[in-house]
Amino acid sequence: MEKHELATGLSVGPQITISDVQTLAAAGFRSIICNRPDAEGADQPGHEEIARAAQEQEMEFRYLPVTPGMVTQEDASAFAAALTALPGPVFAYCRTGTRSTTLWSLSQAKDRSLTDILARAKAAGYDMNGVARRIANGGKTPTDTGDAKYQVVIVGAGAGGLSVAASLKARRSDLEVAIIDPADIHYYQPGWTMVGGGIFEPSKTAKTMGSLIPKGVTWIKAAVAAFEPEKNAVILDGCRVVKYDRLVVCPGLKLDWAGIEGLEETLGRNGVTSNYRYDLAPYTWQLVSSTTEGRALFTQPPMPIKCAGAPQKAMYLSGDAWFKRGVLKNIDIQFMNAGGVLFGVKDYVPALMEYVEKYDATLNFFHKLVSIDGSAKTATFEVIRPDSEKQILTTDFDMIHVVPPQTAPDFIRVSPLADAAGWVDVDQATLRHKTYDNIWSLGDVMNAPNAKTAAAARKQAPTVAENIMADIAGQSARAQYDGYGSCPLTVERGRIVLAEFGYGGVLKPSFPKWLLDGTQPTRAAWLLKERLLPPIYWKAMLRGHEWMAKPEAVSAKAD
After folding, report:
1. Which CATH number characterizes residue 399's domain?
2. Is 41 among the domain residues?
3. Active-site residue (options: 94, 239, 250, 487)
4. Are 491 and 502 in contact (CB under 8 A)?
5. Which of 168, 289, 430, 434 is the most buried (most CB within 10 A)?
6. Range of the domain at 120
7. Is residue 363 included in any domain, yes or no?
8. Does any domain span residue 15?
9. Which run of H or of E encompasses 392?
10. Is 34 annotated as catalytic?
11. Residue 1: what pLDDT?
12. How far apart are CA 224 and CA 164, in angstroms?
């Protein structure tokens, strides 16, 4: 693990794991400060997990979360107070250590010279020049001039961001494009269900971010703090400013693990798992492989969520494994869905119900998971049926697959780009912002009423790229998005119901029915998911090859 000394009694570093806590204790540290909000990353342990590990090592723990780039003077004062109150030496961490260093730097402004602060931070591997400019400006970040400027700036290097960048460069190689994203690793998240089903190895779903940034695109490895759309500016962590002619916003969703009481402290143990986190998906398969009897719960939170079919995919693959091992008769499968239907597009429900019956799964609608007690192995649900009073139900489990509530990231929800519900406000056809003409959005964070899937981003990226090029040429939007989304519902190992649909639940099949009938479980759809989609994702979609994703010409109505 990394740790960098800033001053006597204080070291900082990037995100730590449970095992790192023991290492810190062995090195003599007596306290830990967490400056990273939960659910920033798919592979991030929650602060309660770290706190529990610290307590086991007889260490103090303090949770002082700071949103990237939004360090206030109050945050710095709280950090200083914690350093005074906690026994030292102290280790403070965030995603990279930058926020912790920023907090320390601001807290030391009255007692140390600016030169000393910058030198100590630099020696520890952190550039605090952005903080120096902020202090010099009385705590405010000037946005009239920027540290860098590009023709197109893309926020987020997920499926949508990388695909848009590649599609733009494929259309015009000399276009000045920058991608802003702090992550070191890019994940193929659709593969995590297969990891949880014992089909994919986790390593198949991860690649280094640097290997995926399109040629000629500048990677700004930082987190976004805020937007100033009136000044065409993005403010980064550390208070740097990037200016743009056109902006694309696609940072993905925030997984709100803390939204379920008691969940964080029991994730990854006590039979509690989730395929929505890279490090937990293998635990799902471990539980499925070892379970021979008892009750298995599979939860689904209120919409919207990434891939609405993923919660039940985990149930089907688990049921299939138990069926094939001959233990299914001893396992009580319960699907706890906060919504009122099994799947939102009715054409696919009959095929899914056949598997619900095959695995003898009980469907419980309007059941929202609100708390979990891992040691007692109990889960508590709010049951809110239409025209009925709320009820509270607590049930026991032997294993539980949890899907966390999901929201737009904090820096999106509080931004001028968001609608009243916190999503980026776009025209659902052109994906252009309704207020700011030089901003577009795609992927999970925008408010078009489509399914939030990687397949949707595959169709959206060429649309956004085409419309940006039209705007650069002084033309109206040329392409429109029809709401396409795809959800390969893995109903058993070897067969998939390939749901493909657009706005309003209209079926949008990619293949003729004689070749692949998406409303029925087929081997062909399984081969597509297992063998073809991963290479299409890595080698086509993220590289700007728009196979079966050519942008649809805009209609007069959409423009």
Report:
1. 3.50.50.60
2. yes
3. 487
4. no
5. 168
6. 4-136
7. yes
8. yes
9. strand 391-396
10. no
11. 87
12. 18
Neighbour-count burial of 136, counting CB atoms closer than 10 A to its CB (0-12 exposed, 13-18 middle, 19+ buried): exposed
Among left, alpha and beta (phi > 0; psi -120 to 50; other), residue 239 is left
Asked if 9 and 132 sit in the same domain, the reply is: yes
Residues 226 and 245 in one domain: yes
Closest CA to 304 of 443, 187, 489: 443
- Residue 213, token pair as written in the block: 């940034």
Task: Write the single-letter amino acid at 528.
Answer: L
Sheet containing 378-383: order of strands: 367-373, 378-383, 391-396
Q: Is residue 109 part of a domain?
A: yes
* Active-site residue, selected from the candidate residues 34, 94, 250, 307: 307
Please report, in angstroms and rounded to a whole number, the separation of the first and last CA atoms in the chain: 52
Cα–Cα distances (Å) from 366 to 16, 60, 339, 351, 393, in that order, read 37, 40, 5, 22, 11
β pairing state of 90-93 and 10-13: parallel
Q: How many domains does the chain fold into?
A: 3
The pLDDT tens digits for 27-54 are: 999 999 999 999 888 889 999 999 999 9
pLDDT, tens digit (0-9, with 9 covering 90-100), for 371-403: 999 999 999 999 999 988 999 999 999 999 999
**Helix 159-171 vs helix 454-472: angle between axes, to the nearest 10 degrees?**
40
Give the model's confidence band at 559: pLDDT under 50 very low, under 70 low, under 90 confident, else very high. very low
Task: Tell how many helices (H) and how many strands (E) occur in the chain.
Answer: 15, 28
DSSP 149-185: EEEEEEE--SHHHHHHHHHHHHH-TT--EEEE---SE
Q: Residue 478's closest CA among 171, 130, 55?
A: 171
How far apart, in whole angstroms, are the C-alpha atoms of residue 482 and residue 414? 28
Dihedrals φ, ψ of 133, to 5°?
-65, -35
Same domain, 401 and 482: no
Question: What gap in Å lies between CA 152 and CA 438, rounded to an integer?
Answer: 10
